[in-house]
């Protein structure tokens, strides 16, 4: 087989055969049709062949030198290399679609600016509020302590209410339930004297 005749580990560089084949396929076109360049750049050192970064930089410099050389030759042939200012290319998308995209972008920009403005005002308001609170706190600390407040007089009604219903969360449920002591006390009249009820008999029945 053909594959068995070639040694995979053998590098073949038959320069004479390559040049002969190049002459056969050469079409002898003008340079303007091919833009073929062969810039004279530094060759890679054997140590840099396996170095990825150095190898890519060599390709970059070679391409850059080719572009500069081609520009010089094009300018010498009076060939324009820049797009004219009045050049209008056909858009891949319609103008209506681009207007919709532009409108959507403008609306998005307006909404974002509005949100940023509201956020800024909120932060300023919060900062002013915290500053006022801090000022009030400082003024309270700097004020001289006042003397004790006068004790308010409590009326008898309030004392009785406090005693019966409790005060400040005291027991209020079952406070009016009868006890053995309250059931035995029959003095509910004026000045603690019990009332005597006389039973009237109707003599007309007999």
TrEMBL record:
Chief location of this protein within or outside the cell: nucleus
Subcellular localization, as worded in the UniProt entry: Nucleus, Nucleolus
Biased composition (Basic residues): 147-164, 188-206
Membrane-traversing stretches: none
One GO BP: ribosomal large subunit biogenesis
Keyword terms: Coiled coil, Nucleus, Ribosome biogenesis
Region (Disordered): 125-206
Top-level division of the source organism's lineage: Eukaryota
Bias-annotated ranges (Basic and acidic residues): 125-146
A GO cellular-component term linked to this record: nucleolus
Function: Required for the processing of the 27S pre-rRNA.
Family membership: Belongs to the EBP2 family.
Protein name, per record: Uncharacterized protein
